[in-house]
Amino acid sequence: MSNKRISLTRYLVEQQRVDGHIPSQLRLLLEVVARACKSISQAVNKGDLGGVLGAATTENVQGEMQKQLDIIANEVLIEANEWGGHLAAMASEEMDSIYVVPNRYPQGEYLLLFDPLDGSSNIDVNVSIGTIFSVLKKPEGSAGVSEQDFLQPGAQQVAAGYCVYGPQTTLVLTVGDGVAMFTLDREQGSFVLTKENVQIPPDTKEFAINMSNMRHWDAPVKRYVDECLAGQEGPRGKDFNMRWVASMVADVHRILTRGGVFLYPWDKREPEKPGKLRLMYEANPMGWLVEQAGGAATNGKQRILDIQPGKLHERVSVVLGSKNEVERVTSYHTGL
Ligand code: P6P
What we know:
Elements: H1 8-17, H2 24-46, E1 55-59, E2 65-67, H3 68-81, E3 87-92, E4 99-100, E5 110-118, E6 129-137, H4 147-150, E7 159-165, E8 169-174, E9 179-185, E10 190-196, E11 206-208, H5 219-230, E12 241-243, H6 248-258, E13 261-264, E14 277-278, H7 279-292, E15 296-298, E16 315-316, E17 318-321, H8 323-334
Parallel strand pairs: 3-5, 11-12, 11-13
Antiparallel strand pairs: 1-2, 3-4, 5-6, 6-7, 7-8, 8-9, 9-10, 13-17, 14-16, 15-17
The structure holds 6-O-phosphono-alpha-D-fructofuranose.
């Protein structure tokens, strides 16, 4: 077995040619997104030297102050993808409405959704952040493209992934045939396959949640976390460890790499909102990656990928990771 590492390009060509798994236009789309992530990684890695740390003067659709790098990453993804002929439109956490590919470029059959730089509260303190992306097909027969075309359950995704900008820059991808990881070789300037057929252990001793919100949680979440904290002497009969990076990409990457369960549940702080995280470009892509790696992802009550979106920027509660833990948390909510 050759120990010659294969590039992202070769992996995608083989997924297209050998497995007939992805059409050439989807392969092109994923190569363009990967190149955009390389550019974002370079901007992030410059930090203060690039003069782009700190806040911008604008808010995003969520009412959150944008960081300069949020806006830069968004522009990089738009400019990289709009001319290729593979997309009909894009949607981003950083844009109120969809971005339709301008008439001067050919329209394609895919819809690209992304959180261009997730975890941006960590940018200025040099903690891992990342780009999350999801790919849908434009519904057949619809002339033109509208926001309604994006409102498909996560089970309809044809590709999903993220790029984590940490000690390594690593692209993690699924096209429905398992999860593969590609590490950026900066000397070659290319992503190289470093792990495939990623598997999340079904059990874990590590949970990830923002504990400062404990007094605001619903009873099932409080029960689950209390049992973890009770450790060996408690009902779980084992001690647990806790992690919270406050960057979903970093927390999910740890879970894909060594297992764990991640929770961002509904809480009483903003009771009208189902959760903090966004369904279309955070929970859906991460949920599919986790499922493709043998894990599970629910909103506490139902499979995230089955949720029918009502709005482009709608939020959702998220419980994802090691299958047996996710099933336990979900059973505490449903009583099943
Ligand atoms: P909190 C980052 O802003 C983010 O959207 C996710 O990446 C992360 O998991 C979560 O919010 C962190 O939220 O309330 O702990 O700061």
